[in-house]
UniProtKB/TrEMBL annotation:
Ranges for domain HIT: 34-103
Gene3D superfamilies registered for this protein in UniProt: HIT-like
Pfam family, one: HIT
Organism encoding this protein: Alloalcanivorax profundimaris
Organism classification: Bacteria, Pseudomonadati, Pseudomonadota, Gammaproteobacteria, Oceanospirillales
Protein name: HIT domain-containing protein
Sections of the chain in a coiled coil: none
Length: 130
């Protein structure tokens, strides 16, 4: 049984899933922010996935990046797979806007998150990958 890291479970809300990944949204009202988490126990690095699964993960991330750009009108889409604090492989897809609270720097470690429990409006307009 694959499990979601406790920090990811606490900081994100469920959006959907594919056969390979959980699709989550970050509970921080400052940014439209998605998280893609492969359902593989002990997986820490993208390159540890078999190549066909790497391609499927990339297709999922690309799809969500395009959708996030479409529904938010973002100036920039940031992608990241840091994993320094949460070792379970997960990919961030973040819509950025000139003048947002962290612009032009990274979102990590900047300011305080603004917690939100209710799914934001933009989330309901996303077309999820199949």
């Amino acid at each position: 049984m694959t499990t979601l890291h406790p920090r990811l479970a606490a900081d994100t809300g469920a959006l959907g899933e594919t056969d390979l990944c959980w699709l989550r949204w970050m509970r921080d009202a400052r940014f439209p922010w998605l998280i893609v988490v492969p359902k593989r126990d002990g997986l820490r690095e993208w390159h540890h996935l078999p190549v066909p699964e790497q391609r499927r993960l990339l297709a999922t991330v690309n799809h969500l990046a395009g959708e996030l750009e479409r529904v938010t009108g973002a100036d920039k889409i940031n992608l990241g797979a840091l994993g320094n604090l949460v070792p379970q492989l997960h990919v961030h897809v973040i819509a950025r806007f000139e003048g947002d609270p962290c612009w032009p720097g990274p979102v990590w470690g900047q300011g305080e998150p603004v917690p939100v429990d209710t799914a934001p409006e933009w989330l309901h307009r996303l077309r999820l990958p199949e």
